[in-house]
């Protein structure tokens, strides 16, 4: 950030300091935080957010999370949870996370994983059934042909 100095011009804040728009001075970042490159506020570690109204880092509540340098906490998605001050959420028991960062039921994973097997076994069973029927028809035709031919 910049601040309006007594020289009637905007000046850039020193390292370790920040300022809001329209400030007449820079403020030192609280312990555990550092000013972000634009120096308009200070950044906090993950699981905390920069509370602009208090001018300090505030811990995210349970079932919320935040990455480093956030100005807000994000609610955990459905079927996930977190403890206060978390930088991530974890899936609840019976759920798993995939590349989409969503929590899915283990039951649906097990069902979808077995579906190709069931389809393959069904196709195999059908093939065996058709082959058996073909052999039965072919054998019966040969038998009838022999009887008619003799």
Please tally the β strands and state the result. Answer: 14
Distance between the ends: 107 Å
Radius of gyration, whole Å? 34 Å
- SSE sequence, one letter per element: EEEEEEEEEEEEEEH
Secondary-structure content class:
alpha+beta
Biggest sheet, spatial arrangement of strands: 1-2
- The rough form would be described as elongated
User: Low-confidence parts lasting 5 or more residues at pLDDT below 50?
Assistant: 113-126
Helix content: 25-40%
Count of helical stretches: 1
Largest sheet: 2 strands, antiparallel
Chain-averaged pLDDT = 75
Describe this entry's structure for a reader.
By secondary structure, the chain is α+β, with helices and mostly antiparallel strands. The chain is 29% helix and 24% strand. The chain is built from one helix and 14 strands; from the N terminus they run E-E-E-E-E-E-E-E-E-E-E-E-E-E-H. The protein has a two-stranded antiparallel ribbon. Strand 13 and strand 14 (103-105) form a beta hairpin. The longest helix has 44 residues, at 106-149. The protein is elongated. The N and C termini lie far apart (107 Å). The relative contact order is 0.08. The model is unreliable at 113-126 (pLDDT under 50).
């Amino acid at each position: 950030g910049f601040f309006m100095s007594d020289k009637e011009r905007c000046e850039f804040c020193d390292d370790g300091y920040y300022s809001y728009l329209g400030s007449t001075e820079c403020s030192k970042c609280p312990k555990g935080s550092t000013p972000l490159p634009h120096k308009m506020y200070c950044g906090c570690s993950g699981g905390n957010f920069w509370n602009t109204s208090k001018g300090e880092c505030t811990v995210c509540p349970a079932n919320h999370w935040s990455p480093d340098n956030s100005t807000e906490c994000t609610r955990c998605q459905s079927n996930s949870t977190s403890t206060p001050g978390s930088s991530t959420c974890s899936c609840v028991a019976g759920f798993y996370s995939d590349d989409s960062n969503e929590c899915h039921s283990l039951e649906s994973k097990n069902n979808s994983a077995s579906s190709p097997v069931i389809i393959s076994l069904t196709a195999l069973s059908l093939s065996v059934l058709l082959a058996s029927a073909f052999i039965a028809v072919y054998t019966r035709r040969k038998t009838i042909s022999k009887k008619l031919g003799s």
